[in-house]
Amino acid sequence: MMDHFIISKSNQQSLGQPKIKLTEHWDLTMQGKKYYDYNNTDTRIIIIGDYIGGEEELFTVDTNAIPKLRGNFYAIVIKNESIKVYSSFLNILPIYHTINNTLISSSVELIKQSSKEDFSIDKKFILENLLFNYGFFNRTFYTEIKLVPCNYFLELQQEAVIKHKHFETASLFTKTPLQGSKVADGLSTLFIETTKFYFPNTPFDIAFTSGFDGRTLVSCATYYNKEFKTFSFGKLNNEDVSIPKKNAADLHIQYQYFDLGKDTYIDQDYFTNATEYIKQQPGTNGFIYAHFLYSTKKIATDTNHLLSGVIGSELFRALHLTGAVTSKSLADIFMSSTPQEIKNKILNSSTIKHLKKDEFKTELEELIQEIITYKDSIPKNLTKNQQFYTFVFEEVFRKFFGQWISMQMGYVNVRTPFLDFNFITALLKTKYAGANNDFFTENPLKRMKGQYLYTDIIKKTNTKIYHQKTGKGYRPKDLREPVFIYKIIIPFLLKRFKRKTKTPNLDNLSIISGILANKDPIKEYLKDIEPTYFDFSSICKTLNNLSPYTPEKERDTLLMMLSILLSIKNSSLTKKQTITTHE
Question: What is the 3-class SS of 491-555, one letter each residue?
Fold first, then answer.
C-alpha cells in the first residue's frame, strides 16, 4: 500500500500532518506512515511505495539508475542539501509540481487541498482527454499543476527546482532485432527468472482473465509453487469470467470473480467507485474504470499484493486496433503523412462533438501545432512503428496504465513483472517485441511473434495451461505447432466477420447499466456547470439514447465528457473561474 506525499518549502504552513525535515529549505509531509527511510554516510533515501530490492542496492547503483530497479515506487534522495525526486521505470507513478515549484506531490488533489493558490481548469487538457483518453503532454486538469515528463526527475535546490532527464527511450530500440528459437528460449527463461523477484513470499492475488498476460503469471507462479489466489470481474457470461473460472477449476487453484451484474453493484457500487475514481484523479474516465477501484478494494481486504499483467500485450504484440489504449486520433497522428492531414483529422474528430468548438478554437489550433512539433521531434532513425512505440512507452504506459496502478496502490501493492527494465531491454533487441513488428499490422501470422513468447514461457512452466483454450479461441500450444495454424486463422476470421455483421453488446462490465441506473444524479451534477463551453443538448441527447449497443467510441466519448464535467463540479470553483483560456 502507498500513501501520497507532498514536498513543500520549510517556511510554508503545516499541512495538518507531521513534517519530515529533508533539508534546511524543504520538508516532506506524508498522508500516512507507509514509507522507508534509509541512511548511509552522507546520503539519505526515502522510499514510498513497493520497492522490490535491498537497501544495499539503493546505495551501490548510480542514483539515476534507481528508477531501473524493480517495483512501483518513489525515491527521494537527499545529499548535501540537494534533493532528487524519482519515480520508478518510465515514471509509471506520477510526480506533479505547481508551476511556481513550491509544491511537489504524488497527487494533484493533495496539491490542490494543500495550497492557498487559486486553480483554473486547463482547456487543452480537456481536449487531450477527449481526443486521446489521457493527456498527450504534461498538463493536468489544473493549469497551475504540471506532470513531470517521462524519464525525468526533479532536483530541489535552495531556490530552484530543476528537471533532469536520466534516460532516453530511443536507446532501447535497435535497427537489427534478433530472432530464432535460441533467442525466444533465452527471453522466456529470462522472464521466468524475473517473475521470481516479483512474487512475494506471502500469499498474493493474480488478475486472471481470458487473455495471455494473467495466465502467463499464473503459470510462472505455479512453477515456483507459490501460494496465491486468482480473480477477475464482469458479468458471469463475460469471457473474462467464464474462461478463467473454468481454467482455474481444472488447475485446482483458488479463483473468485466479482459479479458486476449484481443489482447492488449497478445501483450503488458503480456510481460510488466511479465518482471516487474521478475525485482521486480529476479528468480521468472514472465512469469507464469504476470496476478497477471496486475490485481493488475487494482484493485488498485479505491480501497485500496484487500481481498484474498490465503492458504485457502492448510489449509483445503490435498494436493494431484503436480503442481506449490507442485512440483513433492517436493512430491518425502516426498514420498521417503531412501536418495538414493531422490537422484535418483532429479538427474533424467526433470525440470533441460535445464541446462548443468556437470556445476552444484557439486552444485546439495551438494543441494541433504542438502535436505536429512533437511528432517531428521523434528520432528519424527509428522505424515508423518504433516512432509510435516511443509515444507508447513514454506516454501511454504511464498515463493509461499508470493511472490504474497509482489508484490501486492506495489499497494494495501492485506488482507488474512485465514492466521490468532488464526484461524490456532484452525484449526490444528482438523480433518478439511489438515495437519491432510492422506498423498497425492486422496480419495474425505476423502478430503471432509476440504471442509465441507467451507460449514458450507457459510451456516451460505449466503443461496444463499450455493446453487450455484462451479467449482468443485457441490454446497456447496451437501457436507453436504449424499443424494447428487453422485454429488461429479461423477464430481470427470469425471475430472479424462478427465485428462487421453484428452489433456487440458492450455492457459486459455493467458500465452502461451503471450509468442508466444513475442517470438522475448524473443530470443533477450537470445543472451547475457553466454552459458556455459545452453542448449540453448534445450530451443529454447521447445520454438519453445510451444503450448496450451504442458504438464503443460514442459511449467512451460520452463517459469521458461526463467525467470531465464531474471533475469541474468537484473543483469547487465558481462559474467565472471554471475554465482558463490560453492567450
Answer: HHHHHHHHHHHCCCCCCCCCHHHHHHHCHHHHHHHHHCCCCCCECHHHHHHHHHCCCCCCCHHHH
Please write the tens of the pLDDT for every residue from 387-408: 999 999 999 999 999 999 999 9
Amino acid found at 16: G
Residue 302: partners with Cβ closer than 8 Å, 6 or more residues away: none
Beta bridge partners of residue 75, listed in sequence order: 47, 86
- Burial class for 91, CB neighbours closer than 10 Å (0-12, 13-18, 19+): buried
- DSSP letters, 343-411, are HHHHHT-GGGTTB-GGGGHHHHHHHHHHHHHHHHHS-TTS-HHHHHHHHIIIIIIIIIIHHHHHHHTTT
Q: Is the pTM of this model over 0.85?
A: yes
Q: 4: closest CA among 321, 410, 355, 335? A: 410
The whole-number average pLDDT for the span 182-195 is 97
Mean pLDDT of the region 557-564: 96
Distances (CA, A) of 11 to 19, 25, 94, 114, 417: 11, 8, 25, 14, 41
Burial class (CB in 10 A: 0-12, 13-18, 19+), 98: buried
Q: What is the CA radius of gyration of the chain?
A: 24
Q: Yes or no: say if 552 and 94 are a contact pair by the CB < 8 Å rule.
A: no
| Helix ranges (DSSP H) in 252-352 | 263-264, 270-280, 290-299, 312-316, 328-335, 339-347
Q: Give me 441's grid cell.
A: 499490422
**291 is written with which cell numbers?**
470496476
Q: What is the pLDDT of residue 575?
A: 37
pLDDT for residue 14 = 61
Q: Does position 193 have pLDDT exceeding 50, yes or no?
A: yes
3-state secondary structure of 292: helix
Q: Which distant-in-sequence residues (6+ apart) come within 8 Å of 425 by Cβ?
A: 172
Contact indicator for 19, 382 with CB cutoff of 8 Å? no
Q: What are 458-472's pLDDT values in tens digits? A: 999 999 999 999 988
Alpha helices in 162-261 (DSSP H): 181-198, 212-223, 239-251
Question: Over the stretch 283-335, which tens digit does the pLDDT of each residue have?
Answer: 999 999 999 999 999 999 999 999 999 999 999 877 766 778 889 999 999 99
